[in-house]
Design goal:
Oligomer: single chain
Helix content: 40-55%
Strand order of the largest sheet: 2-1-3-4
Strand content: 5-15%
Number of domains: 1
Radius of gyration: 14 Å
CATH class: Alpha Beta
Distance between the termini: 17 Å
CATH topology: Rossmann fold
Amino acid sequence: MIRVLFVCLGNICRSPMAQFVLQDLAKRRCMAEAFQVDSAATSREEIGNPVHPGTIRELARRGIPAGEHYARQMTREDYQKYDWLIGMEESNLRNMRRITGGDPEGKIRRLLDFSDRPRDIADPWFTGNFVRTYEDIREGCEALLGSLCPERL
């Protein structure tokens, strides 16, 4: 089983969107049993809050079920629990390394670093553009699957 933790600032927009997108892609490719996927925040600002309505609307528009999820903060223990800790932007990676005390095993990566066009994924909390965020996350999740399970694509 491949254990993936997606991480963003508040865990209400990007990281839960990535969680549900990857779960959906894995399910559609008959690989759901191969993954354990969750998401978390680097900050404490949104802890306990549900997924942002904009994220839920965009996923629903794409036919992707959004399960029940409430924001939680990433912990130091997550580093040992997950195979990959995947942030959405460079500032997430810095905060993730601070929380974990470093990245000696090279598990912390940015989602779009798996793609052909490495870059940050903008936070729709600030931009309001959930469509663009979805497109970037979809691209990253497809690339992540291609990297982790090339024989299954």
